[in-house]
Design brief:
Length: 330
């Protein structure tokens, strides 16, 4: 081949390569374990829509719901390995990465989602988004699901009623201690396994927010749901720091703006779904929803007090104090 032609070919190839790099789309895989019609499922879909609209040609978002790509136990590792770029595990599931986030699992700490929001918006709450930064992970925000309700095939009105029963729990030592304080047997199971475990009697009961009870049909395999509101289930939206910092500045800034917008919407959906999914469960007639009296709730709270004693030093007293102050509206 003529020398000049060869050189021209080389230059052309190099140019083509550069152009393709310049136009390379960033693919963000967002993996989660819940259904599409939940606060997190809807949030992931909205994030995809806004990111692809506003960063057209620069960002594509692939959403994998219902543990279809990675389930519990795998998604955090996958994020660290770069196999996914965005996940939103429940705060309970950060147990192995930091003990600080377990503050969110303390029973009866937050009365409602408004109390949780006050803490998450406080300086301590915001600082907790960085509690996993040493592990190479960046917390991008908090998303609500809802307050947890206890369910079983027998009515749970008093803490003694839970004694001897097997309960499915998330991957959290604090939640394990919570059920042990009741004299129950906690079992850590991945979310994708819960329905079957309840159906086949591998476990007798569980604790879940209304939207998960509804969307996973847990109410069809639990005869009673006690309206205990005893704990919070929410998420930390998390990404791989190297990936995030490697994004072009303008893309990262736009994605952060979008996420802030989506977060406000998710938290509104969480409030709405907590009410509407509870109503749908009630209307189904497949389970009985038990209202607990103030005395009954006080008994649960008292029985669960040892959990505070055991976990406050692990979480950090200043974090627990700040959460209590925010929860009380101080
Ligand atoms: C659970 O495992 O019960 C929840 O964390 C699932 C979820 O993501 O809401």
């Amino acid at each position: 081949m003529h020398k000049l032609t060869f050189r021209a070919l080389l230059v052309g190839a190099a140019l083509a390569l550069l152009t393709s790099i310049a136009h390379a789309e960033t693919v963000i895989k967002f993996s989660h374990v819940v259904a599409d019609n939940t606060p997190k499922g809807k949030g992931a879909a909205l994030f995809k829509k806004l990111a692809e609209e506003r960063l057209k040609g620069k960002v594509t978002v692939e959403v994998y719901p219902n543990s279809s790509l990675f389930g519990d136990g795998k998604e955090m590792q996958a994020l660290l390995l770069g196999d996914v770029q965005l996940i939103a595990p429940s705060l309970s599931k950060f147990d192995r990465y930091t003990k600080q986030l377990q503050v969110f699992d303390l029973p009866f700490l937050f009365k409602d989602l408004a109390a949780v929001r006050r803490f998450q918006d406080s300086p301590t709450g915001k600082a907790l988004l960085k509690s996993i930064s040493k592990k190479g992970l960046t917390g991008l925000g908090y998303w609500d699901n809802g307050m947890k309700q206890l369910s079983a095939n027998k009515p749970l009105r008093m803490p003694e009623d839970a004694k001897g029963l097997k309960f499915r729990i998330q991957q959290s030592d604090l939640l394990e201690a919570q059920f042990k304080a009741l004299g129950a047997f906690p079992q850590k199971l991945a979310f994708a396994e819960v329905y079957q475990a309840l159906e086949t009697g591998v476990v007798d009961g569980a604790e879940n927010p209304w939207s998960n009870i509804y969307s996973q049909k847990f109410f069809e395999v639990q005869k009673y749901i006690s309206e205990s509101n005893h704990g919070y289930l929410g998420y930390m939206l998390v990404t791989n720091t190297k990936f995030w910092e490697g994004l072009p500045d303008d893309v990262r800034a736009e994605l952060e703006k979008i996420l802030d917008e989506v977060t406000v919407q998710v938290n509104q959906w969480a409030e709405e779904l907590s009410t509407s999914d509870r109503q749908k469960i009630k209307d189904s007639g497949k389970t009985e929803i038990l209202a607990l009296t103030d005395e009954e709730l006080a008994a649960w709270k008292k029985t669960l007090q040892p959990v505070y004693k055991e976990f406050t030093p692990k979480i950090g007293k200043e974090i627990v104090d700040a959460a209590m102050a925010a929860a009380a509206g101080k």
